[in-house]
Write a structure and sequence with these properties.
Blueprint (H helix, E strand, L loop, with lengths): L2 E5 L3 H12 L7 E5 L2 H11 L2 E4 L6 H6 L2 E6 L3 H11 L8 E4 L6 H6 L7 E5 L9 E7 L5 H12 L2 E5 L5 H9 L1 H18 L4 H19 L6 H8 L5 H11 L2 H23 L1
Parallel strand pairs: 1-2, 1-4, 2-3, 4-5, 5-6, 7-8
Antiparallel strand pairs: 6-7
Helix pairs in contact: 7-12, 8-9
Bound molecules: NADPH dihydro-nicotinamide-adenine-dinucleotide phosphate and (2S)-3,4-dihydro-2H-pyrrole-2-carboxylic acid.
C-alpha cells in the first residue's frame, strides 16, 4: 500500500498534493476528493491525479481511502469529524489518518475513527506547493514511531518538518500556519504605501512583491538571521533607519504579537466549539 488519498482538496491540500508531485510522487498513486465536479476536473487537469467529486459520487471519500497508506483530511475544521466518521468503516487498520485542520484535536479525531487507528495531527502552510512549507507533526495515541516517520518523510518532500507536542499547535499555527498571509499582507501594505508616495500602483505592487519574495529567499539561505539581514539594509542615520523607527514608534512588533495571540485564541475557541 503506497497510495495517498487527499480528502477535501482545497487551498491547503492542493498545495501539499502539488508539492509532492513536483517532488516526484507518481500521480497514479494519488487520489483527491472534493465536493464539486468543476473542482475535481480542475485538479485532475492540473496534476494528473484521479479526482472525484462527492456531488457526483456520494461514496467518493470512503472509496478513496480503500488501500490508501496515508489519508490526508483537508476539509474545514467544522467538517473534519463528520468526514472521519464517514470513512471509518472503510479504513484499513494500518492506514495513517493525517489531519491538516486547525483546531481539531487528536482526541476529537480519534473519537471519530475506529479504536487504535493511527492518527497524525499536522499544521502545514501553503508554501508547501513550492517545496518551501513548514509542517508540524504530532502523533496520535496509537501511532507507531514508524508510522510517524512515514508521515514526516512524506512532508519532508514539501518543506521543513518539525515535531511538536499537540499543546503547541495553536501557537505554531499562529506563526507558520497563518504566517504566509501576514507576509502577503505586508506586501499589500507596501504596495499601497508606494502608490501613496506617487508611484504607479502596478509598479508599486511589482516592487512590493519582488522585494518581499527576494527578502524571503535571503531568509531561506542557511544560517540566515532576520535581524542581521535587516541591519545590513539599515545605514546609520540613513533612510531605512527612519522607517524602522517609525514602525517601532507605531508599535508594529506589539501589533504582530497581538495578531498572533488572536489567531491562537481563535483556534482554542474553535476547538471548544467542536466539543
Ligand atoms: N489555507 C491554509 O493556508 C491552511 C489551511 N489549513 C487547514 O486546511 C483545511 C482546509 O482549508 P482550506 O484548504 O483553506 O479550505 P478550502 O475551502 O480551500 O478547501 C476545502 C476543500 O474541501 C472540499 N470539501 C468540503 N467538503 C467535502 C467533502 N465532504 N468531501 C470532499 N471534499 C470536501 C471542498 O471542495 P469544493 O472545492 O468542491 O467545495 C474544498 O476543496 C482547514 O481545516 C484549515 O484549518 C491548515 C493550514 C493552512
Ligand atoms: O485561517 C485558518 O484558519 C487556517 C489555519 C492556518 C491558516 N489557515
Amino acid at each position: 500500500m503506497s497510495r495517498i488519498a487527499f480528502l477535501g482538496t482545497g487551498s491547503m491540500n492542493e498545495a501539499i498534493l502539488g508539492g509532492l508531485i513536483a517532488a516526484g510522487t507518481d500521480p497514479s498513486q494519488v487520489v483527491a476528493t472534493v465536493r464539486r465536479a468543476e473542482r475535481a476536473a480542475e485538479l485532475a487537469g492540473r496534476h494528473g491525479v484521479v479526482a472525484v467529486a462527492e456531488s457526483e459520487n456520494p461514496a467518493a471519500n470512503p472509496e478513496a481511502v480503500r488501500d490508501a497508506a496515508v489519508v490526508i483530511l483537508g476539509v474545514k475544521p467544522v467538517g473534519i469529524t463528520d468526514l472521519a466518521r464517514s470513512i471509518a468503516p472503510s479504513l484499513a487498520p494500518e492506514t495513517v489518518v493525517v489531519s491538516v485542520a486547525a483546531a481539531v484535536s487528536i482526541a476529537q479525531l480519534e473519537a471519530a475513527l475506529p479504536a487504535g487507528q493511527p492518527v497524525v495531527r499536522t499544521m502545514p502552510n501553503t508554501p508547501a506547493r513550492l517545496g518551501k512549507g513548514v509542517v508540524s507533526v504530532s502523533a496520535g495515541t496509537s501511532t507507531t514511531p514508524e508510522q510517524l516517520a512515514r508521515v514526516k518523510s512524506l512532508f519532508e518532500a514539501v518543506g521543513t518538518v518539525v515535531e511538536i507536542p499537540e499543546s503547541q499547535v495553536d501557537a505554531l499555527s499562529a506563526i507558520s500556519g497563518s504566517g504566509p498571509a501576514y507576509a502577503f499582507y505586508l506586501a499589500e501594505a507596501m504596495a499601497a504605501a508606494g502608490a501613496e508616495l506617487g508611484l504607479d500602483p502596478e509598479l508599486s505592487a511589482l516592487l512590493a512583491r519582488e522585494t518581499v519574495a527576494g527578502a524571503g529567499a535571503m531568509l531561506a539561505e542557511p544560517g540566515a538571521d532576520a535581524a542581521a539581514l535587516r541591519r545590513a539594509v539599515t545605514s546609520p542615520n540613513g533612510t531605512t533607519e527612519r522607517a524602522i523607527a517609525a514602525f517601532d514608534d507605531g508599535g508594529i512588533p506589539a501589533i504582530i504579537a497581538t495578531g498572533a495571540r488572536a489567531a491562537a485564541a481563535r483556534a482554542a475557541e474553535i476547538t471548544a466549539s467542536l466539543g
